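User: I'll paste a sequence; please echo it back and then give the predicted structure.

Assistant: Echoing your sequence first, then the prediction.
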Amino acid sequence: MKVVDLKITCVTVPMEAPLRWSMDVETETTRGIIQAFTDEGIIGIGETYGGNSVEHAVELATPYVLGLDPMETGLLQHRLSVFRSGYEPAIPAFLRGGIEMAFLAAAGKALKAPLCTLLGGKIRERIETAAYLFYRRKSGDDCVAKTILSAKPNEPPISSVNYSAFNPRISRMN
């Protein structure tokens, strides 16, 4: 099985309430959906940041991934990480990760195996996670803690998600 094409589709999704952090207030997010097409008709899907610069980086990367076996993620990383302009590679790590995700998805489909099998086998039934918290609140809502710990009407509260830790980053934006 060989990769015959690589495409990215950027999608911008509006947020219900602004995402406020120390550097900005965001009202939407743009993500890139990466598709790795194989000669066997299998399409692997990955995800990363989106936007014009990411689309351009996928165009740069495509000739270097064509012909690779989706199982060859080490070779993929080597090919894409050697092009540098200064200290930053022309194909950034977040994009290499999204392409690798698409490669692994294609390989898993071809082998009819879950990702954990491709990466060495299932070790545990459950993986502990930690949540990185920004806060989201609509204008005029002055109670940040209440917003973080409460849910929207049709969603469970954050505490029911079963995170083992939170890392709040709270700052005031006027």
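Confidence is low (pLDDT under 50) at residues 141-149, 156-160, 170-174. The chain has two domains: 3-118, 130-168.
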